[in-house]
Design brief:
The protein is mainly alpha-helical. The protein has a domain of 36 residues. The chain is 73% helix and 0% strand. The chain has 3 helices and no strands. The longest helix has 21 residues. The chain is elongated. The termini are far apart.
């Protein structure tokens, strides 16, 4: 039982470590006009996106698809 528990602990650690490494994100800053801020706030209020980062990520994905 102890060996199985230790193996499970190691596997859990590796899964958490690999997920953390794959989902690493960096912080950026952006300055936008008031109209854009209102658009972002409206999208957040409607629950279309989780947060501002989600909006930016989706917008960049769309731009990338267009090119």
């Amino acid at each position: 039982m102890i060996i199985l528990r230790n193996i499970r602990y190691i596997l859990d650690y590796l899964i958490i470590w690999s997920n953390t490494r794959l989902n690493m994100k960096g912080r950026i800053s952006a300055t936008v006009d008031e109209e854009t801020i209102k658009m972002i706030d409206d999208m957040l209020k409607k629950g279309i996106y989780r947060n501002k980062s989600h909006i930016i990520e989706e917008a960049i994905k769309l731009l990338k698809k267009q090119k």
